From TrEMBL:
PANTHER family: BIFUNCTIONAL 3-DEHYDROQUINATE DEHYDRATASE_SHIKIMATE DEHYDROGENASE, CHLOROPLASTIC, SHIKIMATE DEHYDROGENASE. Keywords: Amino-acid biosynthesis, Aromatic amino acid biosynthesis. It comes from Microbacterium barkeri. GO terms for molecular function: NADP binding; shikimate 3-dehydrogenase (NADP+) activity. Pathway: Metabolic intermediate biosynthesis; chorismate biosynthesis; chorismate from D-erythrose 4-phosphate and phosphoenolpyruvate: step 4/7. GO terms for cellular component: cytosol. This is Shikimate 5-dehydrogenase. GO terms for biological process: aromatic amino acid family biosynthetic process; chorismate biosynthetic process; shikimate metabolic process. Residues 8-87 form the Shikimate dehydrogenase substrate binding N-terminal domain. It holds the Pfam family Shikimate_dh_N. The keyword 4Fe-4S does not apply. Signal peptide: none annotated. The lineage of its organism: Bacteria, Bacillati, Actinomycetota, Actinomycetes, Micrococcales. SUPFAM superfamilies: Aminoacid dehydrogenase-like, N-terminal domain, NAD(P)-binding Rossmann-fold domains.
Length: 285
């Protein structure tokens, strides 16, 4: 029987914890699957993808937009965000909405970052929102916007370095029925029920900008997780700040669902045990 291979791609990639997360899941499920890291740059993506030697790929920065273009079929969240972090080359579940439109050729594209954010916030007791604030305007910000929209937010303030960079988020808001308002880090921000920071790892805002972001911003969910606390979390009002480890865990759980069942909404056998093993691997236990 041929070896089942899975990989995570990105540039850089050495920091990725996906092999530990996925390895823990497949051990619980009794699957002898191989999951490895691979450094793939933007320029090398198309040639690498042509190998078609995997059951599935996890895709991180800076490749999510290219993965979206490469997918022959895309889930709803991937279509909304224009970002794919999971490519699946196996047989999809017939229950996938819209799968009848797939011609059977090419990979299926999913965005599990959205669900990872929703599930991580649910664990923190944050389940319904009216307003939200998002710091940053990249691919992860797109996922954060769709996530808070699914949680009920109808007004979202995007804080970005330029209105031009935030334009794709405004377009997502129009598609999703969310009123997206863009402001800069140098101006006061409207109060919000929650702030999600999607700034690049290690990014540190000047003190005044960080303080403005923390003012009346609700709890902070910072997608950064190493080092922790992040510079922004250290300045957050009342210390109500949470790292992105929960997002990392739960987006990977959804990827495992896809790679094993062909459907991110299909629960795994022994899923509670799988999640516990993945959480333990993430925490280094």
């Amino acid at each position: 029987m041929s070896e089942i291979r899975l990989e995570v791609w990105g540039d850089p990639i050495a920091h990725s914890r996906s092999p530990q997360l996925h390895g823990a899941a497949y051990r619980v499920l009794g699957l002898d699957w191989v999951f490895e890291r691979r450094r793939v740059s933007r320029d090398a993506f198309d040639a690498a993808l042509a190998e078609r030697a995997w059951r599935g790929l996890a895709v991180t920065m800076p490749l999510k937009e290219q993965a979206h273009r490469a997918a022959a079929w895309r889930g709803r969240r991937a279509e909304l965000t224009r970002a794919v972090n999971t490519l699946f080359f196996g047989t999809p579940s017939p229950d996938l909405p819209g799968i009848a439109q797939w011609d059977g050729e090419g990979p299926l594209g999913f965005n599990t970052d959205v669900g990872g954010i929703v599930r991580a916030l649910d664990e923190l007791g944050i389940r319904r929102l009216e307003t939200a604030r998002i710091a940053g305007a990249g691919a992860t910000a797109s996922s954060a916007l769709v996530a808070v929209g699914e949680m009920g937010a109808r007004r979202v303030d995007v804080v970005a370095r330029s209105a031009e960079r935030a334009a794709p988020l405004v377009a997502i808001g129009e598609r999703a029925g969310i009123d997206v308002r863009v402001s800069s880090f140098d101006h006061p921000h409207a109060p919000a029920d929650l702030t999600i920071a999607t700034l690049p790892g290690g990014a540190e805002l000047p003190g005044a900008q960080a303080d403005r972001l923390a003012a009346a911003g609700g709890p902070l969910f910072d997608v950064a997780y190493a080092p922790w606390p992040s510079a922004l979390a250290r300045r957050w009002a009342d210390g109500d700040a949470h790292s992105g480890l929960g997002m990392l865990l739960h987006q990977a759980v959804l990827q495992v669902r896809i790679f094993t069942t062909g459907d991110p909404e299909a629960p795994l056998d022994r899923e509670d045990e799988v999640v516990a093993a993945m959480r333990s691997a993430l925490m280094g236990d």
